Amino acid sequence: MAALLELHEVSKSFGGMKAVSDVSFAVAEGSIYGLIGPNGAGKTTVVNLISGYLTPTAGTIRVGGVDVANLRPHRLAAAGIARTYQNLQLFDESTVLENVLIGRHMSFRGRRWQLGRVRRREEAEQHEVARRLIDRVGLSDVADADVAELSYGMRRRVEIARAMATEPRLLLLDEPTAGMSRAESDEIGELIRAVNDEGVTVLLVDHNVRLVTEVCHRVVVLDWGQVLTEAGPTEVWQDERVKTAYLGTNERLKEETPDARG
């Protein structure tokens, strides 16, 4: 299967410090690809590079064969790249519907000079699309509630719905289950699979070992800003370097990997 996202020897320095160094990997179109590693490994830096919030010091980033390394975030969004954030970035005093509608701004064709009825018709269409997305993430009952009133897990779902509102071909999920219970993270896993089943390629960054193992087709491990290894979602946990760098101890590995739960 052809690669949708390709990183080739990508590096990023801040002053004299290299946050990532010569990172290379390829994400097959239509796949769910895991990007994992210990805190400080450079995962979010890589996501920021792919989504245009940072510019590489060296290397190339291609999406669909096109070099996107120097494009700004709004240009990348228009090219079909959407993301969520490790720290939630929602408008808390706005409703769930209003937050998701923000993701529809590129699809809104209305202009000031158009007749009122034309604008109203398109606004109604955009609201309908947004409500369908809200229903998909299981929040239809709170569509008109302020985001500030929702639980943490629900707010994570709002952010995913807003990202999906841009109709992406590549969805970057940065720690989507951080702070969630096991039941909540399982629901996010089901949602990720459903999004992927609709043809969206997903790059997933998460510390949840079980989630990554169960939903990802391929996994790359970063450590100290460099690629440590890349393998299938089960095989990657058998690498002694991963056990040491990411999981810490063999006992923790036994506790957290799905195969060890019985």
Give me a quick take on this structure:
With 262 residues, the chain is an alpha/beta fold.
Radius of gyration over all CA atoms, rounded:
19 Å
- Order of helix and strand elements from N to C terminus: EEEHEEHEHHHEHEHEEHH
Q: Based on the structure, what is the oligomeric state of the protein chains? A: single chain
Strand content: 15-25%
Structure description:
The chain is of the alpha/beta class. The protein is built from 9 helices and 10 strands. The protein has helices spanning 43-50, 73-78, 96-102, 116-136, 152-164, 182-197, 209-215, 240-247, 250-256, and strands at 3-14, 17-28, 32-36, 58-63, 66-67, 81-83, 170-174, 201-205, 218-223, 226-231. It has a 6-stranded mixed beta sheet with strand order 6-7-8-3-9-10, sandwiched between helices. A 4-stranded antiparallel beta sheet has the order 2-1-4-5, with helices on one face. Helix 3 packs across helix 4 and helix 4 (116-136) crosses helix 5.
